[in-house]
Amino acid sequence: MRTAVIRATLAATGVLALAGGCKVATVDADGNRLPAPAASAPSGPSAPSAPSAPSASRPAAAPQKHRASTPPRSATRAPAARTLFAPGDQGSQVRELQARLRQVAWLSHVPTGTYGAATTAAVSGFQGKRGLPRTGTTDTVTWQRLLRMTHEPTRGELYVRTGRPVAKPDPRCMTGRALCISKTSRTVSWIVDGKRLLTTDVRFGSQYTPTREGVFHVYWKSRHHVSTIYHTPMPYAMFFSGGQAVHYSSDFAARGYSGASHGCVNVRDERKIATLFAQVRNGDKVVIYW
Question: What's the mean pLDDT in 16-26?
Answer without folding.
Answer: 40
